[in-house]
Amino acid sequence: MRNEAMRAAGFPHGEVKFLPREVRRIGEGGLIEGYASLFGVPDLGRDVVEAGAFRASLQRRGAEGVRMLWQHDPTEPVGRWLSIAEDARGLKVRGRLNLGVRRAREIAALIGDGALDGLSIGFRVVDFRKDRAGGLRRLVALDLWEISIVTFPMLPGARVAAAGPPPGAAAAKEARPLAEAIRRAASRLSRSTPVTPRTA
Fold first, then answer.
1. Has 146 been annotated as catalytic?
2. For the whole model, what pTM was predicted?
């Protein structure tokens, strides 16, 4: 279903990369911050994003042209990115969840509870080179079009954290069953062979 939605949104050849554990608390009103991609770090699909890979895309599109989605679903925008920039480590992002949206309130509660912290990029490969010795695909230039908050990141280092006060007891109670389901799924996944999420 996600593949069909992405094709319908005009990205028939898009790919996604998941990066865990990089969202940090920074402020109020649904603010989140973290790294959506790390340079020079192989992911579970043996891809490595090179420094500068996002430069041209960010110059052309800017943060306002990159969507904030839930689980790469173009029908579920949950906020907006305020800043996206490359630094020495990777692609640093800062954004705001729209707490007027029910899904965003659930996400904020889950992040605050520690049950959710993954980030993932949705992109089109513009240029790459093969590292045959290491069995890697080195991504040299990428057209970045969305960054999602996700349950299971592909790059164990792309993470986000709560950046504001809890959205309220009601939202936290509403999200608790989903938080428990995510914990159970994560526990089962850790005991099984990793699966590489990808769309094409």
1. yes
2. 0.73
